[in-house]
Amino acid sequence: MGKYQIAVLSGDYIGPEIMKAGLKVLKIVSENKNFNYDIKKLPFGGDAIDKIGEPLPQETLDVCKNSDAILLAAIGGPKWDHAPVRPETGLLTIRKSLGLFANVRPTNISSVMAAYSPIKINDPIDFVIVRELTSGIYFGHPRSQTDYEAIDTMRYNADEIRRVAKIAFEMAMERKKHVTLVDKANVLATSKLWRQIVGKMAKDYPEIKYDTSYVDAAAMKIIHDPSQFDVILTENLFGDILSDEAAQITGSLGTIPSMSKGQMGPALYEPIHGSAPDIAGLGITDPISMIKSVAMMLENSFNRSDLAQEIYLAIDRSINEEITTPDLGGTSKTEQVTAEIVRAIKESR
Amino acid sequence: MGKYQIAVLSGDYIGPEIMKAGLKVLKIVSENKNFNYDIKKLPFGGDAIDKIGEPLPQETLDVCKNSDAILLAAIGGPKWDHAPVRPETGLLTIRKSLGLFANVRPTNISSVMAAYSPIKINDPIDFVIVRELTSGIYFGHPRSQTDYEAIDTMRYNADEIRRVAKIAFEMAMERKKHVTLVDKANVLATSKLWRQIVGKMAKDYPEIKYDTSYVDAAAMKIIHDPSQFDVILTENLFGDILSDEAAQITGSLGTIPSMSKGQMGPALYEPIHGSAPDIAGLGITDPISMIKSVAMMLENSFNRSDLAQEIYLAIDRSINEEITTPDLGGTSKTEQVTAEIVRAIKESR
Ligand SMILES: CC(C)[C@H](C(=O)O)[C@@H](O)C(=O)O
Ligand SMILES: CC(C)[C@H](C(=O)O)[C@@H](O)C(=O)O
């Protein structure tokens, strides 16, 4: 059995702090488990702007392309607000260059976590958002700006819609067999195309309950009745907004991982939150989002749900024992939470 | 003193039910108060499609243009899903034709209402969203759709941004002196233009605290810390999504009015919710959103905050006495709630 190559992009502000935690857990969980890997740390985001002058250096991209999976912590921050190229551009470029057209963000609130939610929760919540990630208004042309006028273009074609829709339907087959397409088909031409293509595909999945929702209505349902969802499928910009809203109802942004993937090639795993400049360096960042990103990678890129499960159980245990960072109401440090999760993994063996 | 002309568009499904309630309250509150008006009822939306073949007949538009204010209840519904022109098109056209470029939606949660909120509320919430309403991706060209590709265009110019921004700043001067521009300036060219124009205008209002937020972050803040907002200023599509999200955190969608206005000419007042086909005809629709729309009209188009205040107090009283429709946990009918509000107005005189 060869060694897997994992590209590691620690990024900016709290990025390196949580990456350290994620790699520690990866090391422990894979010990004596026939999972061998090498990591390669690469500059990315603001860090790469400072060192090399661009957010996504060629070498970083090349190594990512040749890896089996990519771990990313978080990038960006006020330091580069006036840089000629922003760190975020690196993120958009890596998504596009690696063809990571599907972004998958789980929202689930276990009974342990319900207390942290800002909403009053009655039923268990467990849905995922499948967001199109490499097209739409993020990438469409023409795009231009003068002092008087600016233009962005939201553009989709049938192939772009079909490939991400397929991921949503396949995912729903393994879950609660329900797909909700979110769009603005009462206004947008692109949304009408989404409805047409996805509606047709739904016929190939007769077991799946398929429905649609306008994006404004969906923004309401995520708050007042989130338990109705299983898989939400949506375009890039709507997915950006709704997935952050959905993350917020868990009340624990610091615990949510995500996966971005394409048809083939490496997938990228990262927390859904940003680089949190306000708490960088204080050692109090919640490492769980990064540690769960590692688990998601083990499960999805390496087919090792056994190892992922060990991580999830250890995390639940650390929360149950209230060894948590301030975002979850605790007083522990990043390193203490990480150590507790490591301990729980070791103990369970 | 002449008579004001008020155009009345009752629309579809629950539309006529709540409009009846609104007009009843308008009649009572203006009795012996030196406020004279005539109403003119006009077909609009699905109703107009059925009667005349188009959602916004020329006569409806003409009368609206020559009125002092417009009351609209709600339009649309599944009945016209496959109509050649949708009811919603009428809404977009009337906004554009009357130059109603600013949509103002209040979100406030009084202590009486906090119990109905799906979120856990600590601090009082009182903000408004000022949404640009006649440009952006709703109206931009090119717009096209084939079976393979579709395109929408988000387009803004400096004048469109300036005029709506001015409304937001003026409004903030009368409120808590805080404006938050919501955009996606880390990705969109149009957002960069908004930042440029609005940032410059902020300098003309030194008393106002001015800040910015990305739309995805704003979608989170509306849930986890809504009391930080005073006036949120944003473009058309973001405003659509965020204002519905904001409405939802009040837990009482059935109670929220809105105003759409331009530089001059009549303003339009309407509930923020839709035509609720599922409860149409049951007589249980909450009339408060429509009644508050009437109050908002009296205050803003006719400078009669005295009458508006009478209405608001009467509404608070009916809620306090738990004479409410099912959306607020009550068992009263639309007509009973309306009668109670009428009674409270009369009694207070
Ligand atoms: C940083 C930004 C460009 C990015 C996006 O909008 O896609 C982020 O919000 C995300 O969701 O990953
Ligand atoms: C019906 C629809 C076209 C409309 C909009 O998106 O503007 C509605 O959602 C609203 O907010 O008034």
From TrEMBL, chains A, B:
The keyword Oxidoreductase applies. Residues 5-341 form the Isopropylmalate dehydrogenase-like domain. It comes from the Bacteria. InterPro entries: IsoPropMal-DH-like_dom, Isopropylmalate_DH. The keyword Ubl conjugation does not apply. Its EC number is 1.1.1.85. Keywords: Amino-acid biosynthesis, Branched-chain amino acid biosynthesis, Leucine biosynthesis, Magnesium, Metal-binding, NAD, Oxidoreductase. Pfam families: Iso_dh (PF00180). GO terms for molecular function: 3-isopropylmalate dehydrogenase activity. Belongs to the isocitrate and isopropylmalate dehydrogenases family. This is 3-isopropylmalate dehydrogenase. It comes from Companilactobacillus keshanensis. The gene is leuB.
